[in-house]
Hints:
It catalyses: L-homoserine + ATP = O-phospho-L-homoserine + ADP + H(+). There is one protein chain. By secondary structure, this protein is α+β, with helices and mostly antiparallel strands. The protein has two domains: 7-158 and 175-183 and 356-364, Ribosomal Protein S5, domain 2, CATH 3.30.230.10; 189-245 and 263-354, Alpha-Beta Plaits. It has 13 helices and 15 strands. It has helices spanning 68-80, 103-119, 126-137, 143-148, 202-207, 215-225, 228-231, 234-242, 266-283, 290-293, 298-309, 332-338, 340-344; strands spanning 7-17, 26-40, 49-55, 87-93, 151-157, 165-166, 174-175, 177-183, 189-196, 246-248, 252-253, 313-316, 323-328, 348-354, 361-364. Strands 1, 2, 3, 4, 5, 8 and 15 form a seven-stranded mixed β-sheet that branches. A four-stranded antiparallel β-sheet has the order 12-13-9-14. A two-stranded antiparallel sheet has the order 6-7. A hairpin with a 6-residue loop joins strand 12 and strand 13. Helix 2 packs across helix 3. The longest helix is centred in the last third of the chain and has 18 residues, at 266-283. It is globular, with a radius of gyration of 21 Å. Residues 245-260 have low confidence and may be disordered.
Amino acid sequence: MNPICNSVHVRVPATSANLGSGFDTVGLALDYHDELTFTLNDDPSDGVAHVIIHGEGEDTLPRDETHLVVSTFRRACATLGLGRLGFTLEATNNIPQARGMGSSAEAIVAGIAAAAAFAQPGELNRAAIFDMAAVIEGHPDNVAPAVFGGLTVSWDFMTAEGVGSVAIPGGEPLHGGFHTINYPVDPAITAAVFVPDYELSTEKARQALPKEILHKDAVYNVSRVGLLPAAMNPVVLAQAAAQGGVESLGAGVGAAGTGAATAVSPAAFATAAAQANALLFTATQDRLHQPYRGSLMPPSTELIELFRSKGYAAAVSGAGPCVLVLHYGDARAAIDEVAASQLASGHWRALHLPINTTGVEIERS
C-alpha cells in the first residue's frame, strides 16, 4: 500500500490520569499539546527516519528508530499495510517528560494517528487507534483521553481462555481487551497543573504499590470515583435538582431522571456549581496509590496536602510528580496564592488549562 499524502501534522493533548480515586481507569485531556509533523523523504529508497526535536526533551530524547514516536509509527504502518517509509519527524514538545502528564501516551497516539492518516482517507478511526495504543502502552488511562478528549473511564474486559467475546442481547458482542467511555465535561471546569523541576519514572512509582489492599480501601475508592462524571458536569446535577432528584450534597445526590432535558433555573445551576467543587474534592480522594507513592515525591505530597487543607480538589497527576488541581469556575488567582511560596522558589511552575474535548487531531498535505 502506498501512502495517500506526503505530509501529516498531528496534534495530541496532554493528559492527566487517575484524578485521585480512578487509579489506572480515569483520564482527562488537557488543552496543552505536542505538535508533530511527518514528512516523507523525497527519495523513496531512503527509508531512514530523521528526527528533529524542539522544546521538552530536546536534549535527552533519542533521534533515531528508538524514539517512541518513530517505533510506534513503524509498528502501526506494518499493521496498516504500509511499507517501510522514510520520513522526517519534526516534533515541537510542550508536554513535560516523566512528570505525569501523559508524554508516553502522547507519543504512542501520535505515531499511530500519523500512520493511519498516511494509510486511510477521511476521519480517523479513533476506536482502532485507541485499541492499538492501549495495547502498546499496557494500560488505557492516558491513551483514552489523548485519543477522544474529555473525561474517559476505561477498563480491560477479560474473557475466559479461548473466548474472544461475549454475546450481548440486542447489541454488538463485547470483545475482550480494552474499552473506554467518554463523559462530557462542563467548559467551566479548569485544571491547574503544578509542574516541578524533578522527574519520577512511572516504573518506579508502580514499584511502590502494594500487591494487596484492604477491602475497605477498595470500597473507599469505588465510592469516590463514581462521583467524578457528575462532578465534572454540574448541569447533570442541576437537571436532577429540577426534577426533584437532588436536595443538597449533605442530604445525598439522587439519580438524574431520564428522557428530555429539564430546564434549569439560574439558582438551581448555581447550587449545582457549588456542589461540583465539593464533589470534586470528595471524588479526588484516594487510598489505593497516592499514600504509597508519597515518599517518592515529598514536595508534591506536601503541595497536595496544602491544597486539600484549603478545600481544593488536588491529586497527583498520573504517576507524578505533577500536581493537578480541578476547580469549577475561575480560581486561578486563589489557586496560585495557595502555592505562592512554591512558585516563588523557582522549583515549580503553574499551567492553568481548559479541558481538551477533541483528542488527537491530524491534518494531511
